[in-house]
Amino acid sequence: MQLGNSRVWDYAGDNYVHRLVQNKADGKPVELEPVWVENEEKMDSMQLEYTYLLTSQLEAQRHYFEDRLTRIETEALKQLEEMKEKTKHAVDERKQLEEKLNRVTKEKQSMDKKISQLTSKVNRIASELKDEKEINKCLRQNQGLWQQKLSIADKALKEVREMKEKEITDLQEQVRDLMFYFDAKDKLKDVPNVSSQEIQEGQIVIGEASGTSTENTKHRKKKH
């Protein structure tokens, strides 16, 4: 007998045989009608089938979720290994980038030093160029004056050259006259009847030796 609902279970027939309910008038237990018993048995059978079906579904879902959980764990482990590998790779790249950054920083410092030196050199050259421009400006301003002075100097040099050339020509003529004088003197000193005064005056007449030939020689006296 089941105490909760006052039903009696038949183990031979494997079902409830009757059901006792409490009478409201005197409170005594009375047997329930067979039709109600059959309906109750059907309900119990349906409830049992539903319980079995629910249990089967729950078991299937348990296996499904266990398999899914296993796959998720496997995928999670795989992703974890991939993340570890990526993290290791990222750490290696970070070290390489740090080394590259240090190298680039040193190169930048060296380039900054060179740029500073070049800047100083450019400033110095610019200052020198400015000074040269000022000098060129002054030279251009004085160029006309220098050209005028040069023209005057060229003219004076030309006059001096012409004067010297004239003096040289005069001296050459004097030398030629002196050479002629000494040459004639040497040739006529042995001629008879020729005095020194005639040689100095440059007038000599030679008639007998050549018949009718007469030679007149003029000589410019030497300047004292």
TrEMBL record:
Residues 1-36 form the UBP-type domain. One of its GO terms (cellular component) is cytoplasm. GO terms for biological process: protein ubiquitination; Ras protein signal transduction. InterPro entries: Znf_UBP. Keywords: Coiled coil, Metal-binding, Zinc, Zinc-finger. GO terms for molecular function: ubiquitin protein ligase activity; zinc ion binding. This is UBP-type domain-containing protein. Residues 202-224 are annotated as: Disordered. It comes from the Eukaryota. Residues 77-121 form a coiled coil. Signal peptide: none annotated. It comes from Larinioides sclopetarius.
